[in-house]
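Wed. Picked up where I left off yesterday with 6-phospho-beta-glucosidase. The coffee machine is broken again, so keeping this brief.
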Amino acid sequence: MDNFKKFPDNFLWGGAIAANQAEGAYLENGKGLSTSDVLPAGGEARFRAILNPQEFIDNMEGYRPSHLAIDFYHRYKEDVALLGEMGFKCFRTSINWTRIFPEGDEETPNEEGLKFYDELFDELLKYNIQPVITISHYEMPLGLVKKYGGWRSREVIECYVRYAKTLFNRYKDKVKYWMTFNEINITAHAPFVGAGVIIKEGENAKQAIYQAAHHQFMASALAVKACHEIDPEAKIGCMLAGSINYPYTCKPDDVFEAMQKDRESFFFGDVQARGYYPSYIKRFFRENNVVIKMEDGDEEILRNNTVDYVAFSYYMSGVVSTAPEDKDKTEGNFMSGVRNPYLKASDWGWQIDPKGFRYILNYYYDRYQKPLFVVENGLGAVDVVEDGDVINDDYRINYLRDHIYEMREAIEDGVELLGYTTWGPIDLVSAGTGEMKKRYGFIYVDRDNEGNGTLRRLRKKSFNWYKKVIETNGQEL
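Structure written out below (tokens, as returned):
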């Protein structure tokens, strides 16, 4: 490694999980049902539920992977000790909204839920690990969906802001990094997962989706305002599903279509980081019969309460063609696209593109001129436990090494980057497929797709590799 190419001394190395994919204990100590609790296990049923969950809300029979997940709720001390052994500087997780407000619209929070996160954050701080906390990560109280229709209702803003203020007041001495919504732009592709919105037969889906997004933007801006007032030292950001699209050819139509595809995603960052609805989205609304209902003062609130940093996930790049019917397809998280012939893919068809990582880091920084935070990056793969509990996951090491290399190059390009948390440092339930065999971790969890297993934890080969990366601040890859 070139000696002059270094990560900042205070760079936050770590890993990221989500409460609903790891904690389990889905009805313990006063917790209510969330949207994620009704989603079934992997396969066709999972995707059907993501697109149209009503039948699964009405009938909760059958296996639901989030109900036990990896039992982090009861095993967090063991797990945090392993993260401490690796030398983590930070750990991103989320708070299960229904642990704090079981139905979502209560006036008074559930003390047992608040106490659990007090204890979790204390355990992290014991190992000098900074908590990085997402307020809502692919879940919300099912009570708010049934009563208000999820984020399609403006009334949910008040419920969220009450929840956020409760967190800021309770944990202001323990948490200095917050995010308002996980991958908020996924609302456009999976509205139930992203916003608790169930599209009704015959309605204008885009109208419902973008009205819900406006309510989320308002909630996010009001949370930013509250966070700055309650704890001026804290930083609060938005979080996007990071994607960048290449044109399939240099045909101008393909180039323009790739820009349009990027804007579908960037729009969600533009409102939260720049503070206003960009002009391009207004044309999109006109052409799709979308009319955003705003109240007096909404635009001012958005303008005056932009985020402190932009966080994002990055797993793959995309390819856009104006003649996609002739091209091979590839898979992604809640979306698919055209296969890039220059890239290899993961076991799940996600195309691996480290150079695209440097590209998107530069693109976001040029666009927003705010600090960035990479809060998800990793390889979902099938791991094999060999004799002696050995797990040789060199493919994961190679994936992460190549991406960290390009991340360092982006910093050299001038990108201001707060930190890097790999996705799923401990194996957990996949959000998209509900599987356990799609593993991301440095730590193996003995649990299968049907919920069988001892839940014991094993260190993979990548465990010691990432420990060395952190120890040398990215000098040894």
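Quick read: Residues 205-230 form the longest helix (26 residues).
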